[in-house]
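Side project, low priority. Logging it here so it doesn't get lost.
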Amino acid sequence: MSELRDLYQEVILDHGRRPRNFRAIEDADLKAEGHNPLCGDKLTLYIKLDGDRVADLSFEGSGCAISTASASMLTGILVGKTETEAREILAAFVEMATAPVDSKSDEGRLGKLAVFAGVREFPMRVKCATLSWHTLESALDRSKEAARTE
């Protein structure tokens, strides 16, 4: 468990300090806002589609290191996926992040995202980690409402 905790901290710090795909997509097909009122995290998620595949994905906003790292990794892992595949990964991520602390993570299904299983040890931070994922769901649902974590 110590090895996973170390990796979790390393990934959070890396993506939190140097987020990938932190930019607007001017001609995005889908766009959604997300807000975590408990800690003030806010983000905008941009999706460019090619048919039903994610051709490009980016975000802008401000938030804690966990929120930023989660959004950064989301944007990297979903490019090239279909909307259906993106929803499957979304469901798996939220399930993993909200599972009991001693639950096993399905690393094969989530790949590098499995490091976020460590957030379960800090219940107040689960909402930080899942904000971008709830925002993704809003975008895929073509919702006009901002995603919220409460």
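Brief comment: Strands lie at 30-36, 41-50, 53-62, 147-148.
Revisit when time allows.
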